[in-house]
Amino acid sequence: MSEDAVFSLIASMAGIQVGIVISSFLFGILTLQAFFYFPSYPNDRMFLKLLSGLVWFLELFGMVFAGHLLYAAAISPYRENPLLMFTKAPYQVNAIILVSNWSGAIVQFYFVDRVRRFTQSLWVPALCWVIIGYTVASVIALTVVSVREGILEYTLHWRWLSISGLFTAAAVDIIVSFFLCGSLMKQRKSPFPRSTRLIDEIILMTVTTGVLTSLVATASAILLVTMPFSMIYFGVYICLARIYANSYFASLNARNRLRGSEEDGIMGSVRFASRSAAAETERSKEISETGSSPRAQATFLGRLRVDLDRSSNPGTLIA
């Protein structure tokens, strides 16, 4: 089958170029977030700082490859014969796919580990880690196919791997948001408005970041299913890793803002949990109405404070 007969050249080039432009804008926001993070949280664990630096450098390499791809498509011999991109794709395409996948996988591992620490359960994180491993393996396999056989062979016979990988990545984001929000909702019925407001804000951020990344991954998969020979899906995929990285740094930088709103709630919870025996009747009524004891809520909020004050674990709870 000839590439001339199947690939839409104009749509493919437009999708790639628009995706690179939007991705560069997202990388600028990411760099600004990284610039704020490192001086603002000097007490974070070294592991978390190294992880953050790794995410940023992977995104930097991704943008370098994306910029060079834009040059290759517009200036190099591909400009005279653009269909060469579909028979022998420039190495930048495969490099972007690999780097973006690794960056997104690191961010997902981080958020899944937060689910493990927050829910004190292992089976859900283990399932998510297996799914993330599948997406990484599928991208490596597709890269090998693309290098050896070209994009046409991949599109005709192997794109199901990309489709399944994108849908499973979206599923991981939804699972993370669901279990985090479920755990937070159990503790939401606090008698202290500040504590409730803190939990509501964390829930909102968790849902926002999870929904955004899952929607972009799903959109890329749907475009690959419906328009496999236009490569518009690739333009969307270029942006996906930047969105993951931005959500990661946003979760880190939110801690200072949230710390102030949670301190009064924590102290109030501790005082409430240690009040005198004369108030035990009211306390029993509170337990029956909220479904959890004040002491349990104080413990829950105390765990929030640990992660807000400094990262004693390799990550934070705040989404």
Largest sheet: none
How many helices does DSSP assign? 11
Sum up the overall morphology in one term.
Answer: globular
| CATH topology term | Rhopdopsin 7-helix transmembrane proteins
Q: Examine the secondary-structure arrangement and name the CATH architecture.
A: Up-down Bundle
Number of strands: 0
Give Rg in angstroms: 23 Å
Question: What is the oligomer described by this structure?
Answer: single chain
Order of SSEs: HHHHHHHHHHH
Number of domains: 1
% residues in beta strands: under 5%
Helix content: over 70%
CATH class call: Mainly Alpha
Amino- and carboxy-terminal Cα gap:
48 Å
Task: Pick out the low-confidence regions.
Answer: 1-5, 263-292, 309-319
**Estimated structural class:** mainly alpha
Give a description of the structure.
With 319 residues, this protein is mainly α. It has a single domain (3-309), classed as Up-down Bundle (Rhopdopsin 7-helix transmembrane proteins). Helix content is 83%, strand content 0%. It is built from 11 helices and no strands. Helix 3 (46-74) packs antiparallel against helix 5 and helix 5 runs antiparallel to helix 6. The longest helix is centred in the C-terminal third of the chain and has 42 residues, at 232-273. Mean pLDDT is 77; it is low at 1-5, 263-292 and 309-319.
